[in-house]
Specification:
By secondary structure, this protein is α/β, with parallel strands linked by helices. It is built from 9 helices and 11 strands. Strands 2-1-3-4-5 form a 5-stranded parallel β-sheet, with helices on both faces. α1 (14-31) crosses α2 (44-58). It is elongated, with a radius of gyration of 27 Å.
Length: 293
């Protein structure tokens, strides 16, 4: 529970306002005149759960608030006795957390004479929640099995400044610093997020070149092995069609581009054709982690 926080303070946060505007009336109707219990699911659901609870108290609903993990740990069980229960979380992505939490409460239903159990979230990818404000678009440029919109905001904040504190990021997302910390650690553990120092390309290089190469498979393999160790190559892709390797380089000057093509590509006897386009430094990426050999 969010301790030492003034009553109703969460209602000033935009994510809570969005949650209440989207499902508040339906939740109030669900509780009706019955006694109710709002349960915020650790970690992010605590923020949304307590915000919804504060709104319900203002609406004079007969509700109490508690928290738990999705396996039931930390639950103040006496608070659910004889009441309607509403589990609250930030989102449902795969449905695993939803199923654990709902099953946990169903097992307690008879023992504590729980009248009903519902589930509320801000974003529902699966359509499982009883109350939700929005779903995710069917199309998204990332895997929703791995990350959600808040994860992306965290990644964006750290990409702008890898030293940004969890407190600063929390202010922009509506989560607690602990919630941010837990998400960052999960993203790192799962290999989704990597925090590292990057070279500012604008401070070191002044020109770039895009090179496409046609060669046999053995030659392409040798080129890839060589280019992976080059401090000039920032983008390297095998392609289909006539040209089967795409190489992007950044250098201090045009002479360096000419030297790279002559020594690293044309020196390979099995290279059949190449095309070169020279331009300004890339719009993206701005930063790069070149191999140091």
């Amino acid at each position: 529970m969010l301790k030492n926080m003034p009553t109703d303070i969460l209602l000033k946060f935009k994510p809570i306002q969005k949650l209440v505007a989207g499902l508040g009336r339906d939740v109030k109707k669900y509780f009706g005149r019955d006694r109710g219990c709002v349960i915020g699911l650790e970690d992010d659901g605590v923020f949304y759960g307590e915000g919804l609870y504060q709104w319900l108290k203002k609406e004079r609903a007969n509700v109490v608030f508690t928290t738990m993990e999705d396996d039931g740990k930390g639950l103040e069980e006496e608070k659910v006795r004889g009441r309607k229960v509403l589990l609250v979380d930030n989102d449902i992505i795969t449905g695993k957390g939803y199923k654990r939490a709902m099953e946990t409460m169903r097992l307690k239903k008879d023992k504590f004479k729980i009248k009903d159990i519902k589930y509320a979230v801000l974003c529902d990818r699966t359509g499982l929640a009883d109350f939700s404000v929005e779903g995710y678009s069917a199309y998204a440029p990332w895997s929703l099995e791995r990350i959600d919109g808040i994860d992306l905001k965290i990644i964006q904040a750290l990409s702008e400044d890898g030293r940004k504190s969890f407190v600063e990021i929390a202010k922009k997302t509506g989560l607690s610093p602990v919630g941010i910390k837990n998400r960052v650690e999960r993203l790192i553990d799962e290999g989704v997020l990597k925090i590292q120092g990057l070279l500012n390309m604008e401070k070191v290089y002044s020109v770039s070149a895009h090179v496409i190469v046609e060669a046999d498979n053995n030659t392409i393999s040798r080129l890839i092995e060589k280019f992976e160790k080059s401090p000039l190559v920032y983008h390297l892709v095998k392609t289909s069609g006539r040209y089967n390797l795409m190489v992007s380089i950044a250098t201090p000057n045009l002479e360096s581009i000419e030297n790279f093509i002559a020594k690293e590509i044309r020196s390979e006897p099995e290279v059949k054709h190449i095309e070169v386009n020279v331009g300004e430094l890339p719009i993206i990426p701005k930063g790069w982690n070149p191999p140091i050999t």
